[in-house]
Amino acid sequence: MSLRLPDSGAPTGPDGRRHAPSADRNAEAILAVLRDEAPEGRMLEIAAGTGQHAARFAAALPALLWQPTDVDPANLPSIEAWREASGAPNLRAPILLDATRPGWPARHPCEALLIVNLLHLIPETEAAAVLCHAASALTPGGTLFLYGPFLRDGRPGSAGDESFDASLRAQNPEIGLKDSTWIEERLAEAGLAVRRIEMPAHNLMFVARRT
Ligand SMILES: C[S@@+](CC[C@H](N)C(=O)[O-])C[C@H]1O[C@@H](n2cnc3c(N)ncnc32)[C@H](O)[C@@H]1O
């Protein structure tokens, strides 16, 4: 079932690029964290969506070889159109990847991994699988960047998050915002040292390093 999300129906430009307003709003704050914390090497972006982040971040961070991925084949043309428009030589063509399925970490070992606004869209068991797979894809010293809206002690961080969470659960009772402590426990179990950073608009970024 496709979900009704605030960015659903992001318009497609004549060159095939789609624009999600949320990806414009949060890009600068996410990039600031990546600039400070990302190691050099291979960056695997899970759930790249429109491809806006991939184009912007790869151009700004030339020491990273950026590989955008998404589970939905319909997203690949937009990601590719953003790649062509960016001209960034360190941005690779997008590939299909379902982050909940086993097997991909062995095919895509990486020094850095980015996941933005995915975990609230999938059930808890799948979110746990994504975190476990992400941890095992990281090389020693590698870092996972996990961004999005999360519950804090089981409670939404804002009235906006509360209604967003309710609208997700109304569409599918198995999905919705995950709790920040639950995330930290899963990442620690997977062998990562995790830190959380408060981000604008009540979002969080987890920076989790393989020690
Ligand atoms: C809300 S969009 C976020 C896109 C982008 N990260 C951003 O912030 O603009 C969620 C994305 O997750 C992708 N997705 C959903 N389930 C996935 C899965 N199991 N593996 C990989 N990507 C998935 C969707 O196709 C969609 O592109």
From TrEMBL:
Keyword Methyltransferase on entry: yes
Bias (Basic and acidic residues): 15-25
GO BP annotations, alphabetical order: methylation
Keyword Transferase in annotation: yes
GO molecular function, a single term: methyltransferase activity
Region of interest (Disordered), ranges: 1-25
Top-level taxon of origin: Bacteria
InterPro entries: DUF938, SAM-dependent_MTases_sf
Protein name: Generic methyltransferase
Species this protein is from: Cereibacter sphaeroides (strain ATCC 17023 / DSM 158 / JCM 6121 / CCUG 31486 / LMG 2827 / NBRC 12203 / NCIMB 8253 / ATH 2.4.1.)
